[in-house]
Amino acid sequence: MTEKGYYSHVERTLKKSLAVLAVVLAVLFLERESLFLWGLAAGLVVAIINNFFLALRIDKMTLIAQHSPSFANVFISIGHGMRWALIGLACFFAVKTGWFSLFGMMFGFLLPSAFSVIEGIRDLFTYQAKGLN
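^ that's the sequence the OP posted. Answer follows.
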């Protein structure tokens, strides 16, 4: 995948996630008592933040890997731990406060990843159809 293709992939994933978040927030305006929707919105926000920072970290890691592959591994591992910590804190907050449905939050965490996988499969078929293996 080219650099342009990578940025396009990340952009499409984030746009779809933001569109779903906008719809969820619009429905929440009408259905304020739904803990599932609150959890879904919170999970989407955390996942969007995680995916954005993952994209930035991968971009920086490719530059670092050219100079020091061992430091690139440490760099990506630290980011991985920080993103999991954010998810853990969000789940802990949901459980302790009861303001969100943990099930809804988990679904929100997974939606951007599902969008990314779908976009990746679409890109793979597009590249194969064009003969860009």
